[in-house]
Amino acid sequence: MSSKRYRPWNPDQMVLFPRAMKDALEEGHIVFRILDVVESLDISSVTDRMDERDPRGTRPYHPRMMLALLMYAYCCGIYSSRKIAAATYDVIPFRVLTGDQHPHFTVINEFRLRHLDAFVDLFVQVLRLCGRAGLLDLEHVSLDGSKVEANASKHKAMSYRRMEQEVERLEREIREFTAKAVGVDAEEDELCGKGGEAHEIRAELRRREERLKRIARAKRELEQEARRSREQELRERARRQRSRAETEDDPIERKRKRTRARKDQEEADRLAEDGGESGSDEGEHDLLSHRVASTPTGRPRAEAQRNFTDPDSRIMKRGTTYLQGYNCQIAVDGANQVIVAEGVTNQAPDQEHLIPMMERVRRNTGGSPKRLTADAGYMSEENVEFCQRRDIDAYLAVSRAKHGSSRNGQPPPQEKQAWRTMREKLSSQQGRQIYSRRKTIAEPVFGQAKQARGFRRFSLRGLQKVRGEWTLVCLCSNLLKLVNAAASFDRVAAQPA
Fold first, then answer.
1. Angle at 214 between CA 208 and CA 308, to 5 degrees
2. Which helix (H) or strand (E) holds 329?
3. What is the DSSP string of 469-491?
4. What DSSP line would sit under 154-208, residue for residue?
5. What is the pTM (predicted TM-score) of this model?
6. pLDDT tens, N- to C-terminus, the chain (497 residues)
7. Is the separation of the CB atoms in 315 and 372 below 8 Å?
8. Is the distance from CB of 335 to CB of 139 less than 8 angstroms?
9. Angle, helix 105-114 to helix 463-494, in steps of 10 degrees
10. End-to-end C-alpha distance for the chain, whole angstroms
11. CB crowding 190-216: b at 16 or more within 10 Å, else e
12. Could you count the other beta carbons within 10 Å of the beta carbon of residue 381?
């Protein structure tokens, strides 16, 4: 028999719980700091919507508790409503935060979906708290984008050409099965006795009819998107032609531009009448969305695709692979890696997102950054001119390069002046030093979200819902910066002089 002595172990040991739930955690735990922040927020955007609901029935959970629960879960890298609900039983900080209440996962998910648009206002409030805590200076802001997987598989996407082929094939097979079923029904008694072939035919027929309905519906929706894309393209072209006509000195050329603008406008109006919808959902300073590749007549091109699970998502390239996802944008302040603007789009290129993201920075913080760095995806003449008008000292890479190698070598022949000027600016010693900070500002924030907190895939589907979820992710990133900074300030203050 072993003489080794062990600590006592009794699975049936009685436990004396503390007098208050908060006594179960050490002083200064992050849960208490998150609760303090949530308590200071104006949540009227949430409570106003809750007040609109019928007061009869089960009393809802307190909105501040639900907000704190979602924020703490996202800070911990828990995004599933089922896992969040389970944590209120299994994890002590969650039990303390909820006051030992256990909302069902359907309640958590419904609260998140119902108040997605409220997270935009809460994001701005937390951002301004960061500003009051001295975490912002807008001296150097870095802009970057990253592709995040949608809650859908790229194998569930189908091109317009493939849709047409599938519709034709299924219609042919349905006609064949229908003819066969008629013959089988005529001899049903005899054939069913041999193995129930009639039942098998009907099942195959129903399966093909359901698949045909799904593909036909996706095909119609893709055609509507292509029509709207072509309509928006024509209206934008007409506006450009009218603008150029105003500054044209040659009367003949001015008349030609006005004629082209009128014809484009008439064609756009015709497409709007055919499609029953008109205009664009994009605001003046909103991130542009993907437009379906269309023909001059407004029909989808053969390569245009649509996903059956999440139609708003798109196939995008990330590194050397392709994924079904969204393009997530962040503008990060260089002082403490606080996100000062965020956004999501289903348009893969980054070039057209710089201006709306800088407008969001100004709207969220009340000012524009003094210095801006971004990679080659954002470089364009329009973006450089915009930064000059706003007195933003921009450092935009003019070409992509591997890590450790120069991205500002010999300029190619016939390079535009904006690229040549930016290349010279980045080639200077000061330019290299400033641009080298880019990888230490925005890229680590994406790494913290994806690697440290495991946010690699959206839980929700649809562009509007995805935008709300990404806002919550960025809100929690700033929340962690705020509470961690407060914790470090407290420790410094507690040290003897």
1. 125
2. strand 321-333
3. HHHHHHHHHHHHHHHHHHHHHHH
4. GGGEEEHHHHHHHHHHHHHHHHHHHHHHHHHHHTHHHHHHTT-HHHHHHHHHHHH
5. 0.82
6. 567 887 777 788 777 766 787 888 888 899 999 999 999 999 999 999 888 887 887 889 999 999 999 999 999 999 999 999 999 999 999 999 999 899 999 999 999 999 999 999 999 999 999 999 999 999 999 999 999 999 999 888 888 888 888 888 888 888 887 777 666 666 655 545 444 455 666 777 788 888 888 888 888 878 887 787 788 778 878 888 888 888 888 888 888 888 888 888 888 888 777 765 544 444 444 787 777 777 887 788 888 888 888 999 999 988 888 999 999 999 999 999 999 999 999 988 899 999 999 999 999 999 999 999 999 999 999 999 999 999 999 999 987 655 444 455 555 655 688 888 899 999 999 999 999 999 999 999 999 999 999 999 999 999 999 999 999 999 999 999 999 887 665 554 444 54
7. no
8. yes
9. 100
10. 58
11. ebeeeeeebeebeeebeebeeebeebe
12. 12
Q: Nearest Cα to 265, choosing from 251, 278, 249, 247?
A: 278
Contact in structure between 419 and 357 (CB atoms under 8 Å):
no
Question: Which pair of tokens denotes residue 453?
Answer: 């907190």
8-state DSSP, 396: E
SS3 (DSSP) at 398: coil
Q: Cα dist. 61→22, 85, 99, 104, 456 in Å?
A: 19, 13, 11, 11, 30
Structure tokens at 432: 């290299």
Contact 143, 492 (CB under 8 A): no
